[in-house]
Write a structure and sequence with these properties.
This protein is mostly helical. It is built from 17 helices and 16 strands. A 3-stranded antiparallel beta sheet has the order 12-1-16, with no helix packed on it. The chain has a 3-stranded antiparallel beta sheet with strand order 3-7-8. Strands 5-4-6 form a 3-stranded mixed beta sheet. The chain is flat and about 125 Å long.
Length: about 600
């Protein structure tokens, strides 16, 4: 029984089927073959599934959906949070990056599948043509066994009939197999297309949700930055008086800026002196204040590692190249008269002569070129004069001689230039593993200074820095600066003294108008008013809704090891845990810490013993 045709096309096919016996016969044979295959070989159909690159299947999409849900929940927690908001941002960004990476992989997979389907469409046209030929061949074959074909079979001799019968049977089997393969291929292609469309739909949903999360995440990031900016704005900007006090306190330490200066950092980790109390805290700074240009101890470390003066200088400066300068150029030296360029450089005392005997001759050559370039730039090619202290570069009336003279002679007249002019090649003894540009330290921005890490490899911790810095052997690489005679000339602080500094920082965040009362208590108040002691600070903090510390039990420091700056200081004690901006902590530590105890740079660590 046939189904009733429902449209004109079906009606035409139905009429053709009824009117043409050959068509009916062909269809019946093909149908019989198909049914026979279904009954005899059901596994061909039960096992049939599309052959698709399935690297990201439903499970993958479920994982993405779960990640998006987790991201949503994390975002909501971050938005609802206050102080810990910044800590969640990195994880949120990592989650989003992971989702985007998986989507990129899916897109690549979809693109490949689309190519397969497009190629399949081309093959399908050929397959359909082949199917038509096979159907016609099957028709001819089937006709052979009816009518005249049967007559011929009956009238031939038996042997020939058997051969022809076997041949015709083989043709029928080949045609049957061809039809089956085409049918299976068409089914496979259609499944591929269907799965591709479903996958594209799921991908579009994931992408849409991810894009929404990206917008939301960006909002959270901006909100976190605004939150941090608001906190920073609550902390009083340093007044001119405070900046002057900080400069005076820093100058009082007499930190050597020249590697040739006598002495070493009196580090409380190496001198073995005990302050007489425990537990104790001290702040250790990496390097000395000026971290611009040539790192003298770093150059020495690079020279011993096999680097030549050119590689050393390019590590610390941006410049076009070298120029042989007129060595008869006169350099006017304050209090000493004039010297030609080479005689002047031979009287510069910036690095030890002994470095030349310890594998550091290339460092001496780099210093000679830097000193020559600096003098020419500072004096405007000799039209001005130059001082003789570390404020310029250290000068003495006698030739230094030895290895230094040899380094000067080896680089005779050589000057670093940019745009044809000598660069003002600043330098200092110890940078603490990093090179800063002039703009980074509050000077005017210059094109020849640079910002770089001065290490042999990547740095992810303070331990890495101490192991890989080129200037790690400097006696000023890691030092706690300042001391108190009453505590055995050490810079250690008691837990309640550190708590007082933290309380000052929390108080000024709540009320910046009282900053003039928060200087160090062992010196006269520079503003001419009263300095609040630690009891008064706790009282004032409490009256403004804060919870003051009586003692600090632990401190941890987080840093950006890419740029060489402390990003946060977290303290724990009897009032809980609080985190402060690294720069703010440094400034108020320096304003409040007793005696001349100081943090002298942007990268520091706090030790507890």
């Amino acid at each position: 029984m046939f189904l009733r045709p429902s449209n004109n096309k079906q009606k035409k096919l139905f009429l053709l089927f009824k009117s043409d016996k050959r068509i009916r016969k062909l269809v019946l044979i093909a149908g019989s073959l198909f049914l026979m295959i279904v009954f005899l070989f059901p596994s061909l159909f039960t096992a049939l599934h599309p052959v698709i690159a399935d690297d990201c299947n439903q499970t993958c999409f479920d994982q993405l959906t779960k990640q998006i849900g987790d991201l949503n929940r994390a975002l909501q927690l971050s938005i609802a949070a206050t102080t810990p908001l910044e800590k969640n941002l990195d994880q949120l960004q990592n989650n989003l990056a992971d989702i985007k990476q998986k989507i990129a992989a899916i897109e690549a997979d979809v693109e490949q599948k689309q190519k397969e389907v497009d190629e399949g469409d081309k093959l399908l046209v050929l397959a359909q043509d082949l199917l038509g030929k096979k159907v016609r061949a099957l028709y001819k074959t089937s006709s052979y066994f009816g009518g005249s074909g049967l007559f011929i079979l009956l009238n031939n001799n038996l042997s020939q009939s058997v051969r022809e019968f076997g041949y015709q049977r083989k043709l029928m089997e080949d045609d049957r197999d061809a039809i089956i393969q085409v049918v299976l291929y068409v089914q496979d292609l259609e499944v591929k297309k269907k799965n591709l469309e479903e996958e594209k739909t799921r991908l579009a949903q994931v992408k849409d949700e991810t894009d929404k999360q990206a917008v939301t995440l960006q909002t959270v990031i901006e909100g976190a930055k605004k939150y941090q900016a608001d906190l920073t704005s609550q902390i009083a900007q340093l007044t001119a008086r405070q900046q002057q006090i900080l400069a005076q306190r820093l100058a009082s330490l007499n930190i050597p800026l020249s590697a040739a200066s006598m002495g070493r950092c009196d580090s409380d980790l190496t001198n073995g002196r005990d302050p007489g109390f425990s537990p104790k805290f001290a702040v250790f700074t990496y390097g000395v204040p000026n971290r611009v240009g040539l790192n003298q101890w770093g150059a020495y470390g690079r020279a011993r590692a096999g680097q030549g003066y050119d590689q050393i200088l390019h590590s610390y400066y941006n410049f076009d190249g070298y120029k042989d300068w007129d060595t008869n150029t006169k350099i006017n030296v304050d209090g000493y008269g004039s010297y030609n360029l080479e005689d002047y450089v031979k009287r510069v005392y910036e690095v030890p002569n002994s470095w030349g005997d310890g594998g550091g001759m290339e460092a001496l050559k780099a210093q000679a070129i830097a000193a020559r370039s600096y003098a020419l730039a500072y004096t405007n090619n000799g039209s001005g004069s130059i001082c003789t202290s570390e404020s310029c570069q250290v000068f003495q009336s006698q030739d230094k001689g030895g290895n230094w003279d040899a380094a000067v002679d080896a680089t005779r007249g050589k000057v670093m230039v940019q745009g044809g002019n000598p660069i003002k090649a600043w330098f200092s003894s110890t940078h603490g593993g990093y090179v800063f540009s002039s703009g980074d330290v509050g000077w005017s921005n210059t094109s020849w200074t640079k910002n770089a890490r001065d290490t042999t490899g990547n740095v992810g911790s303070f331990s890495d820095l101490q192991n890989t810095s080129y200037d790690k052997d400097s006696p000023w690489f890691y030092c706690d600066w300042g001391s108190r005679s009453e505590y055995n000339k050490t810079a250690w602080l008691k837990p309640d003294e550190l708590a007082d500094i933290v309380n000052v920082l929390m108080l000024v965040k709540r009320d910046s108008g009282i900053a003039e009362h928060l200087y160090q208590t062992d010196q006269p108040n520079p503003a001419g008013t009263d300095t609040w002691d630690k009891s008064r600070v706790k009282q004032e903090l409490q009256s403004r809704g804060g919870s003051p510390y009586n003692t600090i039990s632990d401190v941890s420091v987080s840093a950006d090891f890419g740029s060489g700056r402390v990003t946060g200081v977290t303290v724990s004690g009897d009032a809980g845990s609080n985190t402060f901006d690294g720069s703010d902590f440094k400034n108020y530590f320096n304003l409040r810490a007793p005696a001349n105890i100081q943090i002298v740079g942007p990268l520091y660590n706090i030790e507890k013993r």
